[in-house]
Design goal:
Blueprint (H helix, E strand, L loop, with lengths): L1 E5 L4 H13 L2 E6 L4 H6 L2 E4 L17 E4 L10 H21 L4 E5 L11 E4 L12 H16 L6 E7 L2 E2 L6 H10 L5 E2 L5 E2 L2 E2 H13 L11 E4 L5 E2 H11 L8 E2 L1 H18 L9 H8 L2 E3 L2 H7 L7 H8 L6
Helix pairs in contact: 1-6, 3-4, 8-9
């Protein structure tokens, strides 16, 4: 099997590359840089930009399956950048799959594609896309997800979209480091009443789910043209989980709080101000962030369990023990 992973140098992309290599695949890691660590493991690394198809026109030749993880995952930035990478980049990947007669496309989506700012409890994949989004990331990921699912069955391509929620674990360069940075600066505040429950997913579980879904792509496959929520299948209290991470990392605990309404209004004003002056760095608060920090968002993953036998093999406790060895819960 010859597999290609876009965003192969990213957190999830690297985990998928490693699992494919362990499976015995010939693996291509496509990203903005060369990744010597992956090359040392046996992968082939190519520098390319998914928004510029001319940079990867020949790389897809002979590939059997594509794992498309490349994306801008920030909650703030220029709208055109999100459209270029997240949406148009995905269209370019689909086109490359068609041009090279590739049979399988496994797309990394996000639960935020159906998040409209209100609590979601045990929501399943029948949840409709909202009419408006609070940020360009979920909007462009939803646009891309729909394109991927619509591509299923076209020119021999089978496609699936996976929605892992809050991926964390060793090697994370985004979620937990950002959390710890804010805590160290004294900028981390509890938003809301602190009782909201959210889904999370350990990195190895998220990566394995991609390989499992791929096995069910093909004639009469269970995964063809479907979207799937992914998680630990055990929602956590968000602020208890954050507190556990801070404690294990020996970072300052969260001592201040802010009501959801106040945080949302601050986010609204900061977004307006930043756009007015053309400031590109992320505001300390946005409407999307306020909603994510204060509402429930956990999902029914029974479809992933039944269709491709997904199991969260590494529990949240075990994942924390791996990430912070020697620190017990």
């Amino acid at each position: 099997m010859k597999s290609l992973v876009t965003g192969g140098g990213g957190f999830l992309g690297q985990a998928i590359v490693k699992m494919l290599l362990e499976r015995g695949d010939e693996v291509i890691a496509l990203g903005r840089n060369r990744y010597s660590a992956l090359e040392e493991l046996g992968a082939t690394s190519f520098v390319a930009d998914v928004s510029k198809p001319e940079t990867f026109a020949d790389i897809f030749s002979g590939v059997d399956e594509v794992y498309h993880t490349a994306a801008i995952a920030d909650i703030w930035g220029r709208p055109q950048d999100f459209i270029s990478i997240n949406y148009k980049g995905t269209l370019n990947v689909i086109a490359a799959c068609h041009a090279n007669n590739i049979k399988k496309l496994i797309y990394t989506s996000s639960p935020s594609v159906v998040f409209a700012g209100k609590s979601q409890r045990n929501v399943n994949e029948s949840q409709a896309y909202p009419k408006t989004w609070l940020a360009d990331y979920p909007k462009t990921k939803a646009m891309a997800e729909q394109a991927v699912l619509q591509s299923n069955g076209q020119r021999g391509l089978y496609s699936v979209a996976l929605r892992p929620h809050l991926i964390w674990g060793p090697g994370d360069r985004h979620l937990i480091p950002r959390l710890l940075k804010r805590a160290q600066k004294g900028q981390l505040m509890q938003v809301g009443d602190g009782q909201n429950k959210v889904d999370i997913i350990y990195i190895d579980n998220a990566a394995e789910a991609h390989l499992l879904a791929s096995k069910q792509l093909g004639p009469n496959g269970n995964s063809n043209g479907k979207a799937y929520f992914l998680s630990q299948n055990a929602p956590v209290n968000l602020w208890d989980f954050i507190g556990e991470i801070l404690s294990r990392a020996k970072a300052p605990a969260v001592k201040k709080s802010l009501s959801f309404k106040k945080a949302y209004n601050i986010g609204f004003l900061m977004e307006k101000a930043y756009k007015l002056i053309g400031k590109t760095e992320e505001p300390r608060m946005t409407r999307f962030l306020a909603c994510q920090l204060a509402t429930d968002h956990y999902y029914d993953i029974s479809r992933s369990i039944s269709d491709f036998n997904y199991v969260a093999r590494i529990s949240t406790k075990k994942g924390l023990d791996i990430m912070f060895p020697g620190e017990l819960m």
